[in-house]
Amino acid sequence: MSSNVDSLVKPGLGGGLGDVFRSRFLLKLLVRKELKVRYRGSVLGLLWSYVKPGVQFIVFYIALGVFLGLEKSPRNPGGLPNYAVYLFSGIVLINFFTEALGNAARSIVGNGGLIKKIYLPRELFPVASVWVSAVHFFPQLVVLVAACFVAGWHPNVIQLGAAVCGFIIVALLATGLGLLFGAINVYFRDSENFVDMLLMIATWASPVMYASTMVQSKLGEGWYNVYQTNPITIAVEAFHYTFWLPTTDGSAGIPPHLLSFWIPLGIVVSIAVLLLGQLTFRRLEGRFAQEL
Known about the structure:
By secondary structure, this protein is mostly helical. The protein is 73% helix and 0% strand. It has helices at 2-6, 17-22, 24-38, 48-67, 83-110, 112-117, 124-150, 157-187, 191-204, 212-228, 231-244, 258-284, 288-291.
């Protein structure tokens, strides 16, 4: 009798992210469903993965690179060399983060009808949102790599590894925050607005459109180190180190100790956020069906 009692678990609770790994087929189906629903009736379909960031890049490049003088030129020798590559390498990564977190935070409420009808690992929905965002990310990455080759790209293995680490940092962070806010959003729908504000801040609180050396010169070394602890900042600098720096003469500013300290710190912080998101999700998921 005691063994049967010990085997009982609280209704509505699953095995966490481990269930997502064991339900890979369901994850694949959810990703396919999300892509089909998103582009149903669309003329361009997946081509929007190129069009939207392309328009965003052109607007920011003209506004910041040309009008505000961030692009290095004979008239502006203090600007950033190959600013177009610098800008786009940050845009593709921040777009991945904003899309992944924005959709993951709404994924549980958005799939409320399915959650109320059958049981399946609820973590599948935020994780599937991150995977869909990754599908949109890789076409943009192909365009970025092609532009880098045109600009004389010559990376080494370490620099390529830094890009992989940057992507992992963002994917882990988006998954963790997606689990956290996806669960909270079931109980407090205001969290959607909070996530929207967080994503707006994330875009400007990372060196996507400006150089991190500008932050250092304005805030000083102490606050600059605080600024650098942001995992998104670390990931963006890793992408700059991989895609932008090899297109320059190598003298451009990249944060010191990026490989030895900041990237490992970014991975640790992202894993910590993932664990926090999973623990919060597990604590709240028992009443998802009732609340939805």
